[in-house]
């Protein structure tokens, strides 16, 4: 396709049509400090191809790659081993280039894969129905809140967020709520061994449409979802459980079993590498079939054709892209299909038994690390319970410790001061994550480095 540039007259006509005086009017919602006021500083206006390649190689050498150092980062992005089979299958042309399967007769492979993916997610989450994936975990979380509002028919506008919900997810929620007039009742996490369930339950009232709880939470703690579900349902509110580490569900009870009405999460940990932050994979499921038509996204189903042969179709397509416009349940047009395929292939390779063994190994390593870190002078372990990540307190700003250890070639974890820059009582907290890719030598290296830095 040829590039056909617009003329000044073309631009003027388009701007006049939408009521904007200039292109700058289209960016008024972007904060002033986030806008460029000219060319990017420090970059030449032009350079040869070889010069650019040399420059980019020099920049890449400044990175400390996850595979080249003891790695303890998590907080929603996890380094798990992805079998080579996953990449081999998703690179096949019929999957790599496939888009929305509008015509089922020529998209049976994609539809069958999405159908199996839905079945895996529903089983993992303990729910009746899962959709064919969403953009990522944070936007899936907001879509669940919007769905709860539809179920409440707009009569309830209060959304109660657990203080231990990932702050990036909470920020997405607050951003979207500006356009829906939902009242967001949020809080900061309490630096205690167990989540403050009584404080959370105390914020639920008759105006609450839903309660959003992360499981395990941002500090790695496990909460009693059944207690929250009972309290929320008593007030007529729905419970939205958010899971950022799906491997955990190979070891702990599923959110659906514990009464969560909508379960959402990030699927990156299974089949999808860290990839500099994306693309990732939003998971979305509902516990009861009666809520299916309120779900966002798409639903693939199994049927029989005119000859009685098994086939797959798009059973439910509620996006605005499917000619529903303002009646759509969602305006997210991307379902991260390739990442969903990677998730499904990896999950198939693991099977239920493999997932349980993987979860057990993650937990074993985390317990080993917690015990050893607790012996380091100046370190205390916060959690009473955890799966593969937990919070330690260092008695000083964890951000400085993380930077110092990075200089020593150890990626020690995610500092709570980074996640909560304005909460002074959280600054000494460090979220440490262990997966099957962590060795016992890595744990020893972290403990030794902390002993030196905290001495």
From TrEMBL:
EC number: 1.4.4.2
InterPro entries in the record: GcvPA (IPR023010), GDC-P_N (IPR049315), GDC_P (IPR020581), PyrdxlP-dep_Trfase (IPR015424), PyrdxlP-dep_Trfase_major (IPR015421), PyrdxlP-dep_Trfase_small (IPR015422)
GO terms assigned for molecular function: glycine dehydrogenase (decarboxylating) activity
Reactions performed catalytically: N(6)-[(R)-lipoyl]-L-lysyl-[glycine-cleavage complex H protein] + glycine + H(+) = N(6)-[(R)-S(8)-aminomethyldihydrolipoyl]-L-lysyl-[glycine-cleavage complex H protein] + CO2
Entry keyword annotation includes Cell wall biogenesis/degradation: no
GO biological process: glycine decarboxylation via glycine cleavage system; nucleoside metabolic process
SUPFAM superfamilies membership: PLP-dependent transferases (SSF53383)
Presence of keyword Membrane: no
Source domain of life: Bacteria
Glycine cleavage system P-protein N-terminal domain span: 1-449
Annotated keywords: Oxidoreductase
Functional description taken from the UniProt entry: The glycine cleavage system catalyzes the degradation of glycine. The P protein binds the alpha-amino group of glycine through its pyridoxal phosphate cofactor; CO(2) is released and the remaining methylamine moiety is then transferred to the lipoamide cofactor of the H protein.
Family membership noted in the UniProt record: Belongs to the GcvP family. N-terminal subunit subfamily.
Subunit structure: The glycine cleavage system is composed of four proteins: P, T, L and H. In this organism, the P 'protein' is a heterodimer of two subunits.
Protein name as catalogued: Probable glycine dehydrogenase (decarboxylating) subunit 1
Organism: Alteriqipengyuania lutimaris
Gene: gcvPA
């Amino acid at each position: 396709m040829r590039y056909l540039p617009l003329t000044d007259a073309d631009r003027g006509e388009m701007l006049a049509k939408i009521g904007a005086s200039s292109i700058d009017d289209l960016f008024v919602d972007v904060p002033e400090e986030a806008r460029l006021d000219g060319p990017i500083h420090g970059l030449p206006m032009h350079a040869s191809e070889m010069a650019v390649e040399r420059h980019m190689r020099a920049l890449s050498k400044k990175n400390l790659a996850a595979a080249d150092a003891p790695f303890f980062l998590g907080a929603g992005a996890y380094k798990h081993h992805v079998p080579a089979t996953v990449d081999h299958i998703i690179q096949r042309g019929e999957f790599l280039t496939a888009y929305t399967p509008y015509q089922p007769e020529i998209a049976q492979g994609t539809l069958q894969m999405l159908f199996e993916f839905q079945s895996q997610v529903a089983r993992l989450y303990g729910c009746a129905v899962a959709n064919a994936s969403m953009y990522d975990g944070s936007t899936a979380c907001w879509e669940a809140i919007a769905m709860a509002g539809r179920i409440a028919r707009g009569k309830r506008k209060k959304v109660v967020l657990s203080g231990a919900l990932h702050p990036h997810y909470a920020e997405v929620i607050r951003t979207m709520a500006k356009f829906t007039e939902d009242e967001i009742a949020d809080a900061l996490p309490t630096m205690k061994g167990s989540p403050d369930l009584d404080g959370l339950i105390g914020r639920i009232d008759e105006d609450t449409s839903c309660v959003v709880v992360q499981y395990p939470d941002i500090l790695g703690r496990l909460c009693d979802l059944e207690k929250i579900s009972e309290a929320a349902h008593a007030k007529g509110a729905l419970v939205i459980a958010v899971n950022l580490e799906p491997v955990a569900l190979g070891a702990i009870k599923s959110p659906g079993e514990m009464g969560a009405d909508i379960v959402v999460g990030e699927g990156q940990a299974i089949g999808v590498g860290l990839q500099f932050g994306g693309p990732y994979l939003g998971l979305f499921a509902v516990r009861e079939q009666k809520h299916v038509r309120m779900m966002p996204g798409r639903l693939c189903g199994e049927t029989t054709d005119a000859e009685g042969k098994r086939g797959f179709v798009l059973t439910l397509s509620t996006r605005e892209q499917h000619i529903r416009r303002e009646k759509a349940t969602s305006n997210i047009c991307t379902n991260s299909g390739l990442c969903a395929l990677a998730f499904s292939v990896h999950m198939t390779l693991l099977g239920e038994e493999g997932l349980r063994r993987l979860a057990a190994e993650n937990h074993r390593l985390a317990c080993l690390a917690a015990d050893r870190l607790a012996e380091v002078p100046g370190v205390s372990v916060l959690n009473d319970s955890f799966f593969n990540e937990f919070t330690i307190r260092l008695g000083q700003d964890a951000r400085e410790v993380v930077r110092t250890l990075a200089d020593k070639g150890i990626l020690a974890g995610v500092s709570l001061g980074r996640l909560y820059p304005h909460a002074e009582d959280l600054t000494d907290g460090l979220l440490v994550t262990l997966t099957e890719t962590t060795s016992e030598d890595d744990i020893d290296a972290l403990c030794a480095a902390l002993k030196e830095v905290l001495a």
